[in-house]
TrEMBL record:
Listed name of the protein: DUF1876 domain-containing protein
A Pfam family annotated for this UniProt entry: Rv2632c-like
Highest taxon of source: Bacteria
UniProt-listed InterPro entries: Rv2632c-like (IPR015057), Rv2632c-like_sf (IPR038070)
Length: 97
């Protein structure tokens, strides 16, 4: 009977560093996210703009701008992976798998 022994298991651990910066200027909040994978550095920026008639709650602008920047970064990662997969001749990938 064959099984997987401890010597057969290889654990690969990677650390990606993500920095998120938030800048507020009046009713505008800008988020800048930087992801360092060790192999590549990806960046995205996004904004949130408060309606001048709304109550100023800086946390809301932070959340919207940061969320938008992170979503854009996620899409950028998927696009990079798709390009890499196609580059090695493996065909298209479904971004929802």
């Amino acid at each position: 009977m064959s099984g997987i022994g401890d010597d057969d298991i290889r654990l690969a651990v990677k650390e990606w560093k993500l920095r998120l910066y938030l800048y507020e200027t009046g009713p505008k909040t800008t988020a800048w996210v930087v992801l360092d994978t060790g192999d590549n550095v990806l960046e995205e920026r996004a904004r949130a703009h408060r309606n001048p008639h709304d109550v100023a709650v800086p946390e809301i602008g932070d959340e919207l701008a940061a969320g938008r920047a992170l979503v854009a970064l996620g899409q950028q990662l998927i696009d990079c992976a798709t390009t890499d997969v196609e580059g090695v001749g493996a065909g298209r990938i479904d971004s929802h798998d």
